[in-house]
Specification:
This protein has 2 domains: 230 residues, no CATH class; 50 residues, no CATH class. Helices cover 46% and strands 8% of the residues. It is built from 13 helices and 6 strands.
Length: 287
């Protein structure tokens, strides 16, 4: 894939059989999902899965990863070498940390205030997913192979380890591009999930200014769109938020947008939010 792209566009990946370090050596530009894609290069050797045993290759894979992350030794030479490789090769990391908090390791994203604006079609998908899981668990129990449940303590340790890994990656000079995976993961609300992503990265110990730049300038650079997006400069697209608070003093201020400027046109944030339920009804069940 990297060779086929031929440097015309950046290449990123949610990896399975290929390790992140192998992809970095091959010239990949970005990695998706710290929880899964970076796992093989961070976990203890005895906790790694086979190449065929990744996503879809073992039952309860996503919560299974929690145990390996919880036991990982971030001071181990192979972890330090992995971080150094990513920095040296300028491989960005699109971590989707908010995804980790949406039931994989912990559940705080499930209580996101923005859930009230979840598009109806996404809500339907959540109900369908929950029903599928219920049937899968029921079938597994009837077959005498009950599916293991997520352990909250293990999930909390895994989350803390992943946040510390990201902090170390950033401190070493690595480029983070905040991300959410909300398009494919049903329980994450477009827009609001990114706000929570930034809050989690600040919680991880990354400076607030650096997190805000990661979501703007750095993200644009990772997409090779830095000449068009990401900073307030003459000649770039005039998309911006006007906040009623100072996010450098408190990252929660990113939730105080009063005005949204899109393509040079100003919109009142309150009016946009108030229109969401009506928009969902007019669309026949999808916002």
């Amino acid at each position: 894939m990297i060779e086929a792209a031929g440097g015309r566009v950046p290449v990123t990946g949610h990896l399975g059989r290929t390790w992140a370090s192998e992809a970095a050596e091959a010239g990949i530009n970005c990695l998706e999902h710290v929880h899964a894609t970076c796992y093989q290069d961070v976990a203890r050797p005895e906790d790694r899965h086979t190449r065929e045993g990744g996503n879809g290759g073992m039952p309860n894979y996503w919560t299974w990863l929690n145990e390996g992350w919880a036991r990982a030794d971030l001071d181990a030479p192979h972890v330090q070498q992995f971080i150094a490789l990513l920095v040296e090769r300028e491989v960005a990391l699109s971590p989707t940390t908010v995804l980790i908090t949406n039931g994989i390791a912990t559940t705080e994203s499930m209580h996101e205030p923005g859930m009230r604006y979840l598009p109806r079609k996404m809500g339907t998908r959540i109900e369908e997913r929950n029903e599928r899981m219920r049937r899968m668990r029921e079938a597994a129990e009837q077959a005498g192979r009950p599916m293991p449940s997520r352990d909250p303590d293990t999930g909390a340790r895994a989350r803390a380890q992943e946040m510390e890994f990201l902090r170390r990656f950033h401190a070493a000079g690595g480029r983070l591009a905040p991300s959410t995976d909300c398009g494919s993961h049903t329980g994450l609300v477009p827009g609001f999930s990114l706000l929570h992503e930034l809050e989690v990265l600040v919680e991880a110990g990354i400076g607030t200014s650096d997190v805000l730049q990661a979501a703007t300038r750095v993200a644009a650079e990772v997409l090779w769109r830095g000449d068009e997006l990401g900073t307030l400069e003459v000649g770039k697209r005039a998309d911006l938020l006007v906040l009623d608070g100072d996010p450098l003093a408190d990252i929660a201020a990113i939730r105080t947008a009063s005005t949204v400027v899109k393509d040079g046109v100003a919109h009142q944030a309150g009016e946009l939010l108030a229109s969401v339920p009506a928009a969902a009804e007019a669309a026949g069940g999808g916002a």
